[in-house]
Known about the structure:
By secondary structure, this protein is mostly beta strands. Helix content is 3%, strand content 49%. It has a five-stranded mixed beta sheet.
Amino acid sequence: MRYFFFPLLFSIFLLLGACSKDAKVKSKDYPYLLTGPVTDITDQSVNFNCEVLGTGNYTNLECGFLWDSIEPFNATANKIVASSGAGIGSYTKTVDYSLVPGRELYVRAYLLTDNLMVYGNTRHFTCNGGKPASIESFSPAKGYVNTAVTISGQNFGRQTDKIRVFFGTTPAVVDSVTGNRIYTRVPEINQDIECLIRVESAGKQSQSVTTFRAFTYWKRIAFMPGEFRYGAVSFILGDTAYVGMGLKPDGTALNDFWAYEALSNTWTRKPDFPGTARGMAAGFSDGIMGFAGFGIVNQKYLTDLWMFNPQRNTWARTADLPGILSYGDACFEINGKAYFVNQNSFLVYTIYGSFDPQGIFPGDYRHLTAGFSSADKGYLFAGRTPGNVYMKDLWEYTPAFGSWKKLSELPGKKYRDSPVGFCLNSRLFMGLGRYGSALNDFYEYVPATDEWKLLESFPGGGRVSAVAFTLGSKAYIGTGSNNGSGAYSDFYEFDPFKQ
């Protein structure tokens, strides 16, 4: 769009007239106008005025005013339309919002065609105030952190930096604003709240009549006993999660195992893992027995797999992993079978205690990836190749057809290794990991639309090689490292089904 500034051209024509009284000013082929003085300044409103001196070769012009605390431009200033079919003549518009008492403001008129905007001269004035912004409604009435919320009302202006929105006492990000709509998001909170929404504009504020219910996905639960660790392993048997092994911050391997009961929020010590202590192991269950094995210790890759019997509270060694040695391999379980992506070899562990080849994983070789499953599909997310290339892709495996399908990648430069992933009621969630530094972002992948949705960040800070498991309709994430000299033993509950 082209812009014209009329006052300079107008001055040139005045100068030509002074030099020769016989000179004739030709009619202009573009619109032009003058901004008049601001009048009727009260504590509620002001009047903006302008004079359209010519319309050029254009018809059906939009005439209006822009005002700001600096030189007003269309892209950033408040804007009000005086006429959508302007011709030559005078125009006045009463404005009663975005006026801060005692503040010096600048206004200028404009004319707008399909492809041309003409500005008038700028006037400055000191206002005595205006009507406050008012909230009439908002939608939706509840939502999690980062949920988009539209606030409807009056006198909002259109300057995002002049509007402040609060959910209770917590400030929210304003994405955009028009005269009667504010587009914002539920801010970061550390607990569920029911609150009023408040809008501040031009030194005044307005508050909603009804309350908004804001949810957080996260709740801190009991810390895992024992050492701080990363690269731990887990499996589920019934309503109990079993978590153990891993590496201390100095690289010392651990072999302890613990059982977590969500109902009582308690941890109970179980028999130590009898094999070599290790980190970055794989864990799964067939619904009756739990399994843990493989991994790494002192740069040595391990291939042994052990079975835990919860009735006898004992461990027993079972089949070794064949194929290329690695660690941090993807593992997921479907209908009592465990599937492994070992670099690009694809194997299944059956109830008969053997590993059967299932072909080749079609994606890049990788390790330090996340593997998880829904009721009938397996998923592999991100990771790092042997050449230290970080990934952000998501793959889906359907055992009924023995086929892999590449889904949409995580948008942006969100590469990572050592993430977590899990499925709750067919909803897929992924996050954390490392890409230069430890990451705390979290996402939901929506299969129906093949799209990603940014969720509330993990509240425990960036985590590398954390452990995640699900019990019922909730997930639990904890331990991990900060990609430096520190590791953790804390755990958080993740609940995406609050009402």
